[in-house]
Amino acid sequence: MATLAILLLIRQEKGSFTPAGLVVGAFTLASAAAAPVQGTLLDRYGSRRVLAPFAILQAGALVALVAMARAGAPTAALMVIGVAAGALTPPVDASVRVLWRDLAPDVEAAYQLDASTQEVIWTAGPLLVALAASWAPAAAVLGTAAIVLGGTMLFVSAPLAQRSSGSGHSRRPGGALASPALRLVMMISVLAGLGVGSAEIGLPALALRAGARGASGVLLASWSIGSMVGGFVYGLRRWRLPISARYPILLGLIAACTAPLIAAQGLAAAIPLSTLAGIGFAPVISCQYLLLAKLIPRHLAAEAFMWTTASLVAGIAAGSALAGPMVQNLGVASAFVVACGVNAAAAVVAQAGRGRVRLSSGTATPSEASL
């Protein structure tokens, strides 16, 4: 939601996708860089003491971004504010996933539900941004700030959040990164993120090329609806294939389902094709959550989840920064070519790492902790 709002704001104020992609890239890259630190803080201090200050500060940074963009600040200055806003993203998602691990009787079902239902946010968010942006893109950014602040405060006030009080222990050398499984999942997440970042630029650019700026949110929402549907269908059955076998297949599915967007010319084709392109994303994320829950110790769980988030967001940042100039100079289809290629590469990496993990008992030793 924030990335689309910022993209449309800077695109309007600067008149080009290149500075818009750079500011969005700065925002997402800073969010990625800060994520592991946030995870360590969550593991040590718990949700309530970490989330509220981050939410307050990020809301202030987003307000400052709007003010500076409207005042005609140079792109470099907007990137600095984007870095601050991204680094202050409150890590609500990792807090929730640690709670699922501790509370859910069926962890795999819980993570399937988590990966699918978060698409409701990704669906409603772009639609709300598109609605606000049809009036003024600045309103979309300010609305995002209000939602971040209000939603985070609502979460930290809930009784369940009180269970996440933190371990109180200092971080050990290496931390969660000592797990080879985490490092390999991070590599795959970077590649998958490159695909998402490219699509997040390509879909709004496709809408603008068709002369319908408001439809950018519709296309992104369609992608999220596809992911949500794919996640729910994936979760309806119990799979005989182990996670390590499902993971590369699902990544390859994303690449195959994104390919038709390369030839999309108008909204009539782009809406169903964007839905198809999202179909494998929630199942892939569900696999990643379950791998981490099985392979990472409890006292490092939040850090592990945030490292994976950091990798995904870093890939998204790089994809946004790469796709902005590509769309401007090579055309909209180039963004989807990149998305297909990087997801295919992620499938190859996942398949190559498949033989180095054994999950038949539901857990793995550190020496087995690869994909």
Describe the structure.
There is one protein chain. The chain is mainly α and 371 residues long. The protein has one domain: Growth Hormone, Chain: A (Up-down Bundle), CATH 1.20.1250. Helix content is 77%, strand content 0%. The chain is built from 14 helices and no strands. It has helices at 2-14, 17-45, 47-70, 75-87, 92-103, 107-135, 137-156, 180-209, 215-235, 243-258, 267-277, 281-295, 301-330, 333-353. Helix 1 runs antiparallel to helix 2 (17-45) and helix 8 packs antiparallel against helix 14 (333-353). The longest helix has 30 residues, at 180-209. The radius of gyration is 20 Å and the shape is globular. The two termini are 31 Å apart. Mean pLDDT is 81; it is low at 358-371.
Rg is 20 Å
Give me the number of helical elements.
14
Report the CATH architecture.
Answer: Up-down Bundle
Mean pLDDT: 81
Shape field:
globular
How many distinct folded domains?
Answer: 1
